[in-house]
Design brief:
137 residues; alpha+beta; SMI1/KNR4-like; 7-stranded antiparallel β-sheet; 5 helices
């Protein structure tokens, strides 16, 4: 994991990294090609959880939980175009918006994921983490 990712996730409790083959298999099942820095993060830490320096809570799902977390919304081409990968521990989900090219990372209300407004948080995983660090709820 690069130094910038390490700095931005320093306050999170991290898990051992995921195998590249598992990451590829899950991303193919989800129909998503996430930013390269997100893949690098998963290789170094398969999920993480904790408070950001600004007090905001962040839960990043382990790669093997991504399919079960997204199944209620549909997978791949049957999804509403949002593939979740984490949350704030409450009602805000963080997702890849695969309706865009390149994809964006967005925040969306869990109760109205399909029709609710989305907040763009960045195009890369680093930009997403920087967004969370600079914005309190």
């Amino acid at each position: 994991m690069n130094e910038q990712l390490q700095t931005l996730t320093r306050s999170l409790t991290k898990q051992p990294g995921a195998a590249p083959t598992m990451i590829e298999k899950v991303m193919a099942a989800l129909g998503v090609k996430p930013p390269a820095d997100y893949i690098a993060f998963l290789r170094a830490s398969n999920g993480a959880e904790g408070f950001m320096p600004n007090g905001r809570y962040l839960m990043l799902e382990p790669v093997e939980q991504l399919v079960p977390c997204n199944e209620p919304y549909g997978l791949g081409s049957s999804s509403p175009g949002l593939v979740t990968f984490g949350s704030d521990g409450g009602m805000t989900l963080f997702a890849f918006d695969i309706r865009r090219s390149p994809i964006a990372i967005v925040a969306v209300d869990a109760t109205c994921m399909e029709n609710g407004p989305v907040t763009q948080c960045g195009d890369t995983f680093v930009e997403f983490l920087e967004y969370l660090e600079s914005h309190t709820e």
